[in-house]
Design the sequence.
């Protein structure tokens, strides 16, 4: 009996080692993530409370290439509508308006994506990868290599990514960690060529007629979100986005 009891006690001390590690705990094993939390989390929490946002919020990112803005939208998970929490400036630009076509074209993608990677040891301090290329990008690229490794990151250099400085990526990275840690598996990242009002869309049509049909497929999501502050389901069918 003593042997069995001792064995049970010994095994019980091992159980915590085999419990799943929370995503945030795993991220905090990296020095840059700990530094970001030490420097930014207390202030972010105050603004979250001020905006009525509770632990367990959900996140949505909207980027606008022409304006050079990255918007962070958050909502409580029991609510429908997002609230604008922060807007960050791009600190460098690459390419022109229009989607990314192939590797090496220096274009920032346009379309509907999600965060697919957290890199706490990035060459650009901290970085959040997006799932480019998606099915639409692959269809557009045809036989050409579409390119890879598109990130929202620190520093101020880019050949197609979205850089917002080391200081600002700390905040965006923390918020993304918090959202994922609370159970949000897919954080949407929508990259638009510009604020897609009817006036802007018509104005850019004259400059970039080759992209107009593609941009028209992005516009319904922009307009819906502007009106309702909610997201709709998006499908990628036959090389085209469809908003459901």
Sequence:
């Amino acid at each position: 009996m003593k042997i069995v009891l001792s064995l049970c006690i010994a095994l019980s001390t091992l159980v915590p080692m085999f419990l799943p590690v929370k995503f945030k705990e795993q991220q905090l094993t990296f020095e840059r993530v700990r530094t970001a939390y030490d420097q930014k989390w207390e202030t972010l929490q105050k603004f979250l409370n001020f905006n009525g946002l509770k632990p367990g919020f959900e996140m949505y990112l909207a980027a606008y290439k022409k304006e050079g803005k990255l918007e962070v939208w958050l909502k409580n998970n029991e609510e429908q509508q997002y609230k604008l929490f922060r807007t960050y400036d791009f600190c460098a630009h690459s390419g022109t308006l229009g989607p990314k076509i192939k590797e090496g074209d220096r274009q920032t993608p346009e379309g509907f994506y999600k965060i697919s990677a957290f890199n706490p040891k990035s060459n650009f301090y901290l970085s959040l990868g997006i799932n480019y290329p998606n099915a639409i990008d692959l269809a557009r690229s045809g036989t050409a290599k579409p390119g890879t490794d598109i990130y929202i990151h620190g520093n101020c250099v880019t050949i197609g990514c979205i850089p917002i400085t080391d200081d600002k990526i700390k905040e965006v990275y923390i918020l993304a960690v918090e959202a994922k840690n609370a159970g949000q598996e897919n954080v949407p990242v929508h990259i638009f060529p510009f604020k897609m009002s009817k006036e802007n869309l018509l104005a850019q049509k004259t400059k970039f007629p080759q992209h107009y049909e593609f941009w028209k497929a992005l516009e319904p999501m922009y307009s819906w979100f502007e009106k309702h502050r909610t997201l709709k389901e998006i499908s990628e069918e036959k090389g085209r986005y469809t908003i459901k």
About this structure: The first strand starts at residue 58 and ends at 64.
